[in-house]
Amino acid sequence: xxxxxxxxxxAAGWRLVRLLPERVAxxxxxxxxxxxxxxxxxxxxxxxxxxSRVAPAGTDVRALSREGMRSYLxxxxxxxxxxxxxxxxxxxxxxxxxxxxxxxxxxxxxxVIAALMHMGNWDHAGAWACATGAPVTTVAERLRPERLFxxxxxxxxxxxxxxxxxxxxxxxxxxxxxxLRAGRLxxxxxxRDLSASGVPVQLAGAEALMPAGPAALAVLTGAPLHxxxxxxxxxxxxxxxxxxxHEPVPVPPGLRRGEQLATMTQDLADAFxxxxxxxxxxxxxxxxVFVDDLDPARLASTRGG
Length: 305
What we know:
The protein is an alpha/beta fold.
């Protein structure tokens, strides 16, 4: 019953946001962000703890978290309204830095791995890639209730993406390998991993766990691995999403596979750190990500302890 109620509330909200005038919708979400920030609930407190680790020294973290919540709610308003945007709005509200780093390999028939953060609007970025001729395959983590997962699946498929459900076995990895070899763009969220395979890295000077998958795919397929950061610029509803394709992470020669994955994942973390120092307010990380904040029992289980 709880799952059913959750889905019905979410579905009703999704429909309502799409019916509202644009300015009204974004204004309501901004008010909602400010209310949540003032209440300083669990999610806001976690966001502030994360921001305190990545923001430059002397930053007013409380003020930064307010901008962070506004960015987070802007993401949701965008996501709800994206299906109604025409191609002109979808593409015209994107600005891309170093787009050739994605286009050139795809033009040669090679796949590209885009390692993303929970930053900006990755759904908008994926929709833009599809609308401009880049075939996209990505992974969807299962949500509860199941109907909500199916709704998000249909949403992303409707934007033009091919979705591979996240499984507990190797099926997901094999599907991504096949699609990379077929010359597709594979964006993967890569700034948080609490599984047994999480790779310890230094993120903004603090230890965190990031997934080995993007680096493992690059080693196996030879596809270039690019850190990709996404942020907002401007005030809603006339804001734009900015996508930056950073230089590819090289596969270090002469190392064992585990050492290669560790080195490459740290390279990703370094690129993420540089972006976080400048645009931390667009990092929508309301969950635990740093090792010092993890439950000791859960941390031991991820490391086989």
